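Worked example 2:
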Amino acid sequence: MKTLIRKLSTIILKEGKAHKQEVLIRKLNAVLRGWTNYHKHVVASPIFSYVNNTIYLLLQRWAKHRHPKKNGWWRLNKYWHSKNGKPWVFMGERNSLINLRTIDIRRHPKLQISRNPFLDKIYFNKRKIRLKLLAIARNG
């Protein structure tokens, strides 16, 4: 988590000081999408919230660097907008930043270690069907 925050901080505050909002969102989304895809299978909701809040604070510093003489409300209204009824979404004209609180955390069904695939074929057939039904339900 510390490595991710360090990487995001580098993207926002060092490399991205002069970037436009759209470019910054694309770079951040690429990093966040990869990190969340790797970690969404574990109990990660508190971590996702912490990283989300940290990104918000980093982006506030970025906005303050770009507009040092404007007040906080002006910066918020320029860079954070409402989208699909959700307020305070960091977004430009085409892209919006991924909100980590909306990532769907999916647990893997546990496998019974005491079962043998050669002896307990009924159990493994039922498990295969159940996994297929879960995949269909997730994909719509």
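Residues 45-66 form the longest helix (22 residues). The longest strand covers residues 86-90.
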